[in-house]
Amino acid sequence: MYNVMVIFEPEGRKVAVPLGSTVLYAAREAGIGIRSECGGKGYCGKCRVIIKNKKAVSRMTRVEKKHLSKSEINLGYRLACQTRVFRNVLVIVPKESRLETRKVLVTGLERRVELKPTVRKLHLKLPKPTLLDQRPDLERVLDTLSEQVKSDKWNIDYEVLKRLPDLLRDADWEVTVLVDGNRIIAIEPGDTSNYLFGFAVDIGTSKIVGHLVDLTTGKTVAVGSIENPQIIHGEDIMTRITFAMANNANLERLQKLVIDGINKVLYEVCQKARVDPSRVYEVVAVGNTAMHHFFLGIQPKYVALSPYTPAVKKSISFNAKKLNIEVNRRGIVTVLPIIAGFVGADAVADVLATGIYESEELSLLIDIGTNTEIFIGNKEDMLCCSCASGPAFEGAHIKHGMKAVTGAIEKVHISSDLEVQYETIGNVKPSGLCGSAMIDITAEMLKNGIIDTHGRFNSNIETKRIRKNNNETEFIIARSNETATGKEITITQKDIREIQLAKAAIYTGCSILMKRKGIREENINTVFIAGAFGNYINPVNAKIIGLIPDVPTEKIRFVGNTAVTGAKMALLSEEMKKKAEFISKKVRYIELANDPDFNKEFVEALLLPHKNLNRFPSAHTGVVRT
Amino acid sequence: MYNVMVIFEPEGRKVAVPLGSTVLYAAREAGIGIRSECGGKGYCGKCRVIIKNKKAVSRMTRVEKKHLSKSEINLGYRLACQTRVFRNVLVIVPKESRLETRKVLVTGLERRVELKPTVRKLHLKLPKPTLLDQRPDLERVLDTLSEQVKSDKWNIDYEVLKRLPDLLRDADWEVTVLVDGNRIIAIEPGDTSNYLFGFAVDIGTSKIVGHLVDLTTGKTVAVGSIENPQIIHGEDIMTRITFAMANNANLERLQKLVIDGINKVLYEVCQKARVDPSRVYEVVAVGNTAMHHFFLGIQPKYVALSPYTPAVKKSISFNAKKLNIEVNRRGIVTVLPIIAGFVGADAVADVLATGIYESEELSLLIDIGTNTEIFIGNKEDMLCCSCASGPAFEGAHIKHGMKAVTGAIEKVHISSDLEVQYETIGNVKPSGLCGSAMIDITAEMLKNGIIDTHGRFNSNIETKRIRKNNNETEFIIARSNETATGKEITITQKDIREIQLAKAAIYTGCSILMKRKGIREENINTVFIAGAFGNYINPVNAKIIGLIPDVPTEKIRFVGNTAVTGAKMALLSEEMKKKAEFISKKVRYIELANDPDFNKEFVEALLLPHKNLNRFPSAHTGVVRT
Q1: Selecting from 3.20.20.10, 3.30.420.40, 3.40.50.1370, 3.30.2010.10, what CATH number does the domain B354-391+501-615 have?
Q2: Which among A137, A338, A591 is the nearest to B309, CB-wise?
Q3: Each residue of B328-376: pLDDT tens digit?
Q4: Peptide bond into B310 cis (omega under 30)
Q5: Nearest Cβ partner of B136 from A158, A166, A312?
Q6: Can you give A239-306 as a three-state secondary structure string?
Q7: Looking at the complex, does the CB of residue B337 fall below 8 Å from at least one CB of chain A?
Q8: Where are the beta strands (DSSP E) in B155-206?
């Protein structure tokens, strides 16, 4: 195979790839993160790169011409997924095409948990064998162990038993035993009982977030996160599932990527806290059902195809080495249970963290993402559903949408003279709009009469910020001289439609669950909004556009990344693991598509805030100027 | 490294070995079995080979001169362990130096056992998933499984779960589940519930004996055996332990050899019964404590050194793949528990097989070997000990001693005119004497006054069969024209001493246990004699020489290889595994060396039958002619 050299700027990183490879492939090989929501199929147009030497690469395709303007083409813009390299070439990756460090919530709602982890360490001083005490090595350990912990059903892993005689004698009969229930999973020489760490990890579609916890104190000693490395095979989960469906090699590749990512976060937190990774003995992992399957290397295809059946619901534990998780080689991994194909272990962790399953009061819990999971109920009964809210709030399918990373506009206010104020993440020049900005913009435009309850632009409004572009109306949020890209950031009629679809999906989920449960807004004591995205939403604006039910603002609690909090609780306490299992069994999953009212509800919820304004008495008052 | 070629005759097998290698090493490399009781140290003198070209090999050592006669040296005899090769050379391995197929008891005492094996197969027809039944794959399996077997604590191995979604769909929702307790260890497509086999194996120091059992019927479908391949590192266990003590590589080599041997027996029985080895799902293994450790790859050094502590006593189970046992890759291996450093899982199996631990009546159980294990007691209380009876009865340390293989004299009668009648194994010309012949010879010589109660030759007896050789008196059993080797087979004064030492050790064990238990011969209901060797012993002669207590002959039962029978019972029944564990805990081990009477007892037992003739009222009556 003949190789050509591709150099990526500004890093100057070189990579040799087979002649005819795409630039996107070369970027992956070089470890350069390029946005590719569609996984390299030419649908999203996000993987723009600049190539000056046209002769080194393939001719421009139709797909590229659709996504790029003439002036861009003149500047050398190409789509990395469409462009194949035939000679050594230099590729510039512009800012807007880069996968960047995303702002993420790594701390969540901390609830008090009794410190009683599944893995425990016991320091033992063993009596030495004599002719009058010829007890075998293992029984000697078990007898001493049983003085501290009662059990007559001790088991030992074969690998530990195998090395026991030399270990005990080399340690001069003073050892520390690591137990998991009634199973001995490791024996270490000397007293190491002060070194007992655990790692809680939320495997998100976009981010992997990990907390390192000292299991002797219950304290979180370091937190870390990383972009999910699977993103090179598509930003959305369906693209990745499609990739994995093709063959087991692809599935294994995705599994390896996510495990590599977890190991990176593990090393990051261990470095921060100066903890030897071999002192980490348990990992509790959560993630949506697809990530749960990817992590375990289980084919996720049947989760994606009707009737959407996952492989397993209950919690499972196994040796960390089986997945090459680089904690102690005798350590264990526990994956919390899931509820259904679209309600995963992360959602179970949400419920565990908020405690709504053991409260007398009725709560509504919404974890917003591409799939939004919604729970309603209390200790008596819990219902849940999953809404295909889509990736709009994460920046996809929105002209200037982007994830909540540095440079994203996250807050927007439109004054009565239709001027715009905004804040960007990292206080830098803006590059695009993240989800919370979209909610603000929609609400502010509605309040100021720029759009009507149907989401249509009001043709009577006159401002230079509204203009036609390619036959589509758009509103300018940031002018070209204000932005990092030198291009205007706008919100289009189509963008508004996407936001309406997303918010209608979420609200429909809430309203169908409320109907099934036979309750109204006033019965709800607390609305928990979870997800890394959630913390930046303006709750009033969320009600104004009809994203969430109209409850008093003081009843709305943003709880951040409750998934990792729930995972951490399970790490700290065996009891919490049992509660997670209980939640997984107790919660009744409602398939929205099966509800006879679904279509009607959804169509009505497309309006801003809703067709039935009685549902939003506080929100719509005095909102519509026209 | 410069290699030379060694050719072994009569096979004509060639092997290239580094210049200066011993002939014994070359034979091992060539796969030629040469006797080497001492493991190649020059002590035993059994590894005789004939080399015509003296210039191709090293000069004769002092050790060789000690073991070889002048005429043998002239014929080209050398010891393979002492002779190093420096040129291409032809080596003849004479019959008497060969490791041959040994006669072995593979069936034992069959007791009735309720068929309820640990591993079970359940054929399941699963309802297909629909939008109204979205249960996950595993829960679908568990729900259907629970209709047949009640358990709410089902576990599944990660490896099985990982492949579950495709497996269920490929099998069109009809599968067979293999369970071990509440753990699912395998799932197979279709109905395979009729194919469920187990393998019981007794890992002896000399032989590996295996029974293939159909676990759906409880029937033994094939039996097989092999010389323990570890024999190339020494016939006796201490030589092997010494080898393993040197380093872990040696230990691993010995482990690999025994596992290779087990796999060979497995393939042998599977071929005989035409059973696919992947249909074998459980292996139950027994062996003495050292073999138990070798099998598990556990350093046996501390079993051999004071205070003789084994690594583990309790039964252990693990995945067969961990030890490369070539049954089903999800199959399990269970090693039965041991009692002490010199009372292993094979002895536990003896007790299980004979049922003496649950009998009202008092029994004595003697499993004769290099180490002889003795049990006494009933359901109330059991004592045991181990006697270093030595390898005399297995042919070692006896001038013309050999194992019970083809060509060994196994029965001997000496008539009053001092003529000898004998029977050989396989009805061929004799090559030497096996253990049962030694008992007969000692008893017959005693009865005929050829030796006295002290084991001394009677100088008053006149017969051509008695002669002096190298200043030692010996008695000719077979004349040179009768034997396979063309050399006389004799029993020497030194041989008689060795036999006295062996029988005294065994009887002392019995008498100390009887004393500790406070019982006499008349209290014993049954004497069980176990071990492959045991079946050929003449019980009257055994009493005449004082090998076993003087009980009526009808109370003596030869039960053969009860070790493999016990292993098979544990394979057939979970309950029997629990009983083995019970035996291991209940039996009290007596360290003979700690008994104050040991030395006195032993010295008195050296006499034939005993110093105190009151102990052998039936045996000694009319025995001594002088």
Answers
A1: 3.30.420.40
A2: A137
A3: 999 999 999 999 988 999 999 999 999 999 999 999 999 998 889 999 9
A4: no
A5: A312
A6: HHHHHHHHCHHHHHHHHHHHHHHHHHHHHHHHHHHCCCHHHEEEEEEEECHHHHHHHHCCCCHHHHCC
A7: no
A8: 155-156, 174-180, 183-189, 197-203
Question: Is there a contact between B310 and A136 if contact means CB atoms under 8 Å apart?
Answer: yes
CATH of the domain spanning B3-97: 3.10.20.30
Q: Which residue has the higher pLDDT, A209 or B391?
A: A209
Type and span of the H or E element at B602? helix B598-605
Cβ under 8 Å to A: B residues 129-188? 129-140, 156, 158-159, 161-162, 164-166, 169
Distance CA A561, CA A206 (A): 13
Query: What pLDDT, on a 0 to 100 scale, did the predictor assign at position B9?
Result: 83
From chain A, the residues in CB contact with B342 under 8 A are: none
- Architecture in CATH for domain A355-391+500-618: 2-Layer Sandwich (3.30)
Specify which residues B588 forms β-bridges with: B383
Enumerate residue ranges in chain A where pLDDT < 70.
1, 100-111, 532-535, 619-626
Q: Which two tokens stand for residue B486?
A: 């063309």
Q: Compute, in degrees rounded to 10, the torsion defined by CA atoms B379, B381, B387, B391.
A: 10
Name the residue among A138, A301, A308 with its Cβ closest to that of B314. Answer: A138
Structure token digits, residue A196: 């007992």
B365 DSSP assignment? E
Tell if the CB–CB gap between B340 and A134 is shorter than 8 Å. Answer: yes
Domain with CATH 3.10.20.880 in chain B: 119-189
Taking Cα atoms as reference points, which of A403, A492, A398, A400 lies closest to residue A445?
A492
> If you measure CA to CA, which chain A residue comes closest to B323?
A158
**For position A102, what pLDDT does the model report?**
42
Query: Which chain B residues are closer than 8 Å to A134 by Cβ?
Result: 307-309, 340-341, 589, 591
Angle value at C-alpha B111, between B109 and B117, nearest 5 degrees: 120
Q: Which of B417, B400, B351, B384 is nearest to B580 (CA)?
A: B351
Q: Which of B165, B307, B316 sits opposite A311 (nearest CB)?
A: B165
Beta bridge partners of A6: A15, A89
Considering the domain A119-189, what is its CATH architecture?
Roll (3.10)
Q: Please tell me which of the candidates A301, A307, A322 has its beta carbon nearest to residue B158.
A: A322
Residues of A in contact with B309 (CB under 8 A): 129, 134-137, 140
Q: B156: which chain A residues are within 8 Å (Cβ-Cβ)? A: 312, 316
> How far is the first Cα of chain B from the last one, in angstroms, to the nearest whole number?
67
- Do A106 and A209 form a contact (C-beta atoms < 8 A)? yes
Task: Enter the ipTM.
Answer: 0.77
Mutate to test the interface with A, among B241, B309, B386 (most CBs of A within 10 A): B309
Give the separation between CA A138 and CA A126, rounded to whole angstroms: 11
- Check CB contact of B341 with chain A, cutoff 8 Å: yes
Q: Nearest CA to B282 among B149, B155, B112, B118?
A: B118
In this complex, do B134 and A307 lie within 8 Å of one another by their Cβ atoms? yes
**Nearest-by-CA chain A residue for B338:** A136
**What pLDDT digit, counting tens, does each position of B578-598 carry?**
999 999 999 999 999 889 999
- Cα separation, A108 vs A346, whole angstroms: 13
Domain with CATH 3.10.20.30 in chain B: 3-97
CATH pick for B199-345 out of 3.30.70.920, 3.60.110.10, 3.30.420.480, 1.10.630.10: 3.30.420.480
**Å between A133 CA and nearest CA of chain B:** 8
At A220, which amino acid appears? T
